[in-house]
Specification:
The protein has helices spanning 3-6, 31-43, 48-60, 68-85, 91-104, 109-156, 161-169, 172-180, 188-192. With 197 residues, it is mainly α.
């Protein structure tokens, strides 16, 4: 690269710290800094149980924050980080976090409850969406099965009962393939091949 272009390129030096070797006592600074560094250190390297223990210990440092409003805002950010970073948190874990927070600082437990409720709603919404998607797929499968049965009956006359049942229970992809090839079938045996194991 020409020198006159290099002069305009950022050239930074990075300071990287491996927090995994630092003990709680070695992590210094104000409450916010200590909490975040401990959580960043533990989230990827410890089991869920160990991480939650670190979280409870770190949360006690929130009591040191003088500005209540800032403390609550920071507390909310911390909780959101915990709930999003620790993927295998169960509902029982979340309820345990809420109970611990209620014990440690009652004035902030409302925030934890709100976040736990939001997470539960998100879980419920995700379940609802999956249910709706499954319902739509089942509805589409039933419609295609009905169409396939009508088309095949018109082409070959009365269909064997076992084939009718196979078509009714077939998945969406199989039904689509059957219908796409309906004009190629020479006999009912061509259709039965889709259900042979």
């Amino acid at each position: 690269m020409p020198q006159h272009v290099k002069e305009y390129l950022p050239n930074f030096h990075y300071l990287l710290y491996d927090l995994s070797d630092y003990s709680d006592e070695e992590i210094k600074g104000n409450a916010q800094k200590r909490i975040m560094l401990k959580l960043l250190r533990d989230v990827a390297s410890k089991s869920t149980e160990e991480f939650l223990r670190s979280f409870y210990e770190a949360s006690h440092a929130l009591l040191e924050i003088e500005d209540k409003q800032k403390g609550i805002e920071f507390f909310e950010i911390t909780l959101r980080y915990v709930f999003n970073a620790v993927r295998d948190l169960t509902k029982k874990d979340m309820e345990q976090i809420v109970r611990q927070i209620e014990t440690t600082f009652p004035e902030r437990s409302e925030v934890a409850m709100t976040l736990a409720d939001i997470l539960r709603e998100e879980d419920m919404q995700e379940g609802l969406e999956k249910g709706l998607q499954k319902g739509r797929q089942e509805g589409a499968s039933q419609a295609l099965a009905k169409t396939a049965l009508q088309q095949l009956t018109e082409k070959f006359g009365a269909l064997p009962e076992d084939l009718k049942e196979d078509i009714k229970e077939a998945d969406l992809a199989t039904l689509e393939t059957i219908l796409q090839n309906i004009f190629k079938y020479q006999s009912i045996d061509d259709v039965k091949k889709f259900f042979e194991q």
